Amino acid sequence: MFLRIDKLQAELPAPKRQDPNAAAALQELLGGKYGEMSTLGNYMFQSFNFRSKSKLRPFYSLVASITAEELGHVELVSNGVAMLANGPDQEGADSGDGGDISNAPFADMKDIRSYASFASHAGGAVPVNSNSMSWNTDMVTTTGNVVVDLLHNFHLECGARLHKLRVYETLTADNATGREVCGYLLVRGSVHAHAYALALKQITGVDIEKMLPTPNIPLGKIPECQKYLNEGSHRRLYTFSPNDYKEIAGIWGNGEGALPGDPPGELTVVDGMPEGGKIHQLVGIPSAFTPDYAPEEMFEIATKLYQASR
């Protein structure tokens, strides 16, 4: 089962401007071939289908714990997409009704890269790529063969890092929200690729980590990666459980060190999850009927329910 915490794995800075086209670019990290939906789908179903779990516990625990982290990555990217698509919050924007909607208040939306993201999803994130093509289960590989699945996962993480870098390179310096998403995921993707490489080394004896970083991404040259490197996130693998999956320490840790080029230090397993940060509160837009055209009564009911729960 999964435990849900009302936080993001990393706190995202508020957007400085509305940029639905940048939001569409960020969708590649969600529903693209190497996006977070793919990593989540692969690891989740591999963990569900894993054979001989008790006899291969360290490898099962590795896939299972990374599954939980990937679920949080889907949440992180989705929040980044919605924040960019909607832009800075306007205080009081959700007060009153939607006004005169006959004056085409969203005329500019017809020219955005992914009009469906506004028309169908109100600027929210959905499992599609940067061209609004749906993510699908053909992107899930679960063979039942441990070596094949781990090798596929290593390839998937390397491809994901390359795509994150390319999306990062499309975002201008004033796009702090999108760049923060990319910076955090580049560091954590490095951890996952390294972890799968070490798992393959344990089984096959092949030093796949000598291929790392693949592709050659110098995280130290990416400003948005720095705080995560400085705090040692590149050396930590989380169990995402208070009591389970501790067996990953046999693979991650065990005297192993950080990848060359990253700040040095021994790899460590952390019980539980990262501290994380607050989830951005998207303000409603009554003229777009989010959460409704005239939501005051809805807010009043919710306030009474909240007070009754205290």
List keywords for this structure.
Ferritin; mainly alpha; two-stranded parallel ribbon
Describe this structure in words.
The longest helix has 30 residues, at 57-86. This protein starts with 19 loop residues before the first helix and ends with a helix. With 310 residues, the chain is mainly α. The radius of gyration is 21 Å and the shape is globular. The chain has helices at 20-26, 28-31, 36-49, 57-86, 115-119, 146-170, 176-204, 226-230, 296-309; strands spanning 236-238, 268-270. Helix 3 packs antiparallel against helix 6. It has two domains: 20-89 and 106-279, Ferritin (Up-down Bundle), CATH 1.20.1260; 283-310, no CATH class. The protein has a two-stranded parallel ribbon with strand order 1-2.
Kindly summarize this structure in a few lines:
By secondary structure, the chain is an all-alpha fold. The protein has helices at 20-26, 28-31, 36-49, 57-86, 115-119, 146-170, 176-204, 226-230, 296-309; strands at 236-238, 268-270.
By DSSP, the count of extended strands is 2
Which CATH architecture of the largest domain would you pick? Up-down Bundle
Helix count? 9
The order of strands across the largest sheet is: 1-2
Which value, in Å, is the CA radius of gyration? 21 Å
Helix and strand pattern: HHHHHHHHEEH
3D shape:
globular
Helix/strand-derived class? Answer: mainly alpha
Our measurement of the CA-to-CA distance between the termini, rounded to an integer number of angstroms, reads: 27 Å
- Beta-strand level of the residues, as a percent range? under 5%
Q: What's the main sheet like?
A: 2 strands, parallel
